[in-house]
Design a protein that fits this description.
Largest sheet: 6 strands, parallel
Shape: globular
Radius of gyration: 19 Å
Structural class: alpha/beta
Number of helices: 6
Strand content: 15-25%
Distance between the termini: 49 Å
Strand order of the largest sheet: 5-4-3-6-7-8
Helix content: 25-40%
Length: 191
């Protein structure tokens, strides 16, 4: 028995392996007063963003490859866009080089962000192209801000982003899948 202010749920395994016990651990509690993102308006630059350390697990190299594909397939319907990554890490230099090599000039590395709610409220779309995730609080904060999200099938994210109204789920480490989702939403920014 463990002491907890949360209820403990006890059940039995469907595989006949005995009792199991689950004690909920709330890692994210929605803030009803969190700043809300404003919808994109024609004539504006569409602002896409991501929060995370600059590390291979976050998949920002995949994002850069996808952005190069989006740029190569740009249509007249696509509004101008910028992507801001808020985070720090040892991979910043290599990510900047990759973006330059691929001709992706819409990307801004904005450094550490101590006010994620304000950063997210300034966006129109959130992207989390992770190779590995657990719960991904940042994607949940983005949804709390009213943003559509594009997430990879890493960790818990595909369980939450379960309808097109919430966003799109793409394959892990798949730049083509990510480019397709970005292109779809960039070509129809009101949907």
């Amino acid at each position: 028995t463990t002491a907890s202010s949360s209820p403990t749920f006890v059940g039995y395994s469907a595989w006949g392996t005995g009792r199991w016990r689950v004690c909920p651990w709330p890692i994210f509690a929605a803030d009803p007063d969190a700043p809300q993102a404003r919808p994109w308006q024609p004539g504006e630059t569409l602002r896409i963003g991501s929060l995370g350390r600059l590390h291979p697990n976050k998949g920002y190299d995949i994002l850069i490859e996808a952005l190069a594909m989006v740029n190569a397939a740009a249509t007249p319907a696509m509004p101008p866009y910028r992507v801001a990554i808020a985070g720090e890490g040892a991979d910043e230099s290599s990510l900047r080089s990759l973006a330059a090599d691929r001709g992706v000039d819409q990307l801004d590395f904005v450094g550490f962000c101590d006010t994620s709610a304000d950063f997210l409220a300034g966006l129109h779309l959130y992207v989390q192209p992770s190779r590995r995730e657990g719960f991904c609080i940042a994607a949940h904060e983005a949804m709390q801000a009213g943003l559509p999200v594009i997430v990879s099938k890493a960790g818990e994210m595909p369980l939450t982003v379960d309808t097109p109204d919430i966003g799109r789920v793409v394959e892990v480490a798949d730049a083509q899948s990510l480019a397709a989702a970005l292109g779809e939403l960039l070509n129809a920014p009101h949907s």
